[in-house]
């Protein structure tokens, strides 16, 4: 077995991800190539374990340049990373990844270990959690036993108020969702968010792996969700509702519709994502049937990376 470092995505890696129990949508070429195209300061590398000429496992990693320094993550923005494929290749892949951190201009290497598949006794470790709904019993059970009474009532109210939810890949619909996304971020003073191109590329290139849902009333977009589909799991990646949409519970109707369709298609879990410690958001996800699932984030910082982190912490505390 040898480890190759490649800077283009070999299509056969998608087949490895499709067969791997540890893989998520974030390991696929659809996500990784769209991400790098949307962020010019990012570079992608794939550490590939090969048995002869056949890839048996790989680890995706992305470098972000900060001045003269690089930070390597598998993967950035808290998305799930680490090695996938045949487990016997994981130690060699992780050793090759750690060697990236030995370069003089590298501040840190890190990864998001969602499935607890990598033995890492060293490094800084941070606990994280997501809320995941078990949808394997089918939507009737999920609706009756997972959704609480308030969410069921608000879902019905949204429909009675004339809100309609549909799945779409139309480029104009993507633009309408992005316009809503931008307006909400501006209102919250929450920064620039994801680039427009990322949404457009994911929907255009994702096929059945990417689903965009819009909630509308009278032609007005009141909310939308972008979901990712891989193996038997759905991940709710980005959702947004307007102020009117929130008042009319468009978001809950979006979740109910997407979960129902996922059940009908045979998916078994619906990941509502991390809540970043927001108690109200965690409670909302529990009301949809989400159960807390804990995972970890691991990083190795060099002395320069520790200094940069300390300076940033000091600035935030001022």
Short description:
The chain has helices at 12-19, 29-38, 90-100, 139-146, 149-160, 171-188, 196-206, 243-247, 250-264, 279-287, 303-317; strands at residues 2-6, 42-51, 54-66, 69-74, 84-85, 106-113, 124-134, 164-168, 210-217, 220-230, 233-241, 269-271, 291-301. It has 318 residues and is an alpha+beta fold.
Structure keywords:
38% helix, 318 residues, Aminopeptidase, 13-stranded mixed sheet, alpha+beta
Explain what the structure shows.
This protein has 318 residues and is α+β, with helices and mostly antiparallel strands. It has two domains: 2-122, Gcn5-related N-acetyltransferase (GNAT) (Aminopeptidase, 3-Layer(aba) Sandwich); 131-294, Gcn5-related N-acetyltransferase (GNAT) (Aminopeptidase, 3-Layer(aba) Sandwich), CATH 3.40.630. 38% of the residues lie in helices and 32% in strands. It has eleven helices and 13 strands. Strands 1, 2, 3, 4, 5, 6, 7, 8, 9, 10, 11, 12 and 13 form a 13-stranded mixed β-sheet that branches. Strand 9 (210-217) and strand 10 form a beta hairpin. Helix 2 packs antiparallel against helix 7 (196-206) and helix 5 (149-160) packs across helix 9. The protein is globular, with a radius of gyration of 20 Å. The protein starts with a strand and ends with a helix.
